[in-house]
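Changelog note: in this version the structure field was regenerated for every chain. One regenerated record is shown below for reference.
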Amino acid sequence: MSSSWTPDESSETLLAEKGWLQGTVVSAIAYGINVTLYFMCFHLLLRQMTRTNCKKQIPLLVYITVTFILSTLFMTALADFTQLAFIQDRNYPGGPNAFENDMFSIPVDNIGNVCGLITMLLSDGLVVWRCMVIYRGCRVPMWAIMLFPCLMYAASVVMGIMWLLQVTTFSPYFSSTNINYTVPYLSLSLALNIIITIVIVLRLLTYRRRISKVLGSSYGTQYTSIAAMIIESAALYSAFSVAFLTLFLLNNPISETFIEALTQVQIIATLLIVFRVAQGKGWSQDTMSRVMVSRPSVQAIRMGGLGYDLRDGSKSFTDSNNVGTHETCKISDRNLVEAAV
């Protein structure tokens, strides 16, 4: 087939334009997922709202609504900017790729940049909050666990503001005469998410091991399954961000595809966390207690020669070596939980 209609541009330029256009398509697909997740979360939270839990539900409703509005504005700005480059101003010298680099700071693109930044900060904040919830009740002081993530989050906020000031004047892809905050900002956000992903997964793995040891592998799986760990730790965004930064540092034009879809993917990870919380499957402060005392049948749990009988009423344990006397002692739910934790 003849390629006489191919623009007289380098293969790198054409590849960058392909990456940009495909990134817009991927972002639109991810936005469609966000719309579905938003209405699912909103319906579930609203249906479960009562006078007693409204203080917990309303902040989540406000949070997901704000992120949904930001994602809509971001998608609108991206679509409009793409339309300008590929249709309305397609005769711009150098083509759409040059248009993007030279017009990165026009108002319509700045709207997308601002929405993307705020969304990323809100999403990172949610992940930090989930880490705090999951580690609540740990023997290690909370400040010792959360100090480093909170400092990283604060640094990410500062670097994000510097990045936003940068992209209002020139493209982050060409900054040989200026300080480029793109890599430091996104690297901080990525490092924060990776660290929190690791610590959350480690905590949930520890819970799963202890629950399985005391109750068996069939209990608490909705809180400690592989899917739960991936969602709770926002691992989806971390993996996507690693792919983008790797390509960006290698100066690969395909990084355009990832950076344009990055905001929508992060919102997907955020809404999945909220959806688990709305379903009652998200880890909370009293999850361990609920798992440990919700056993439906009367079965013995053997630990160190002792058979523990869990009933709906009082909890007791029996010496398995002294079947004749069956000497019984009462233990509380709290002691049972502490045996696992």
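Spot check on this record: Confidence is low (pLDDT under 50) at residues 296-341. The CA atoms of residues 234 and 269 lie 5 Å apart.
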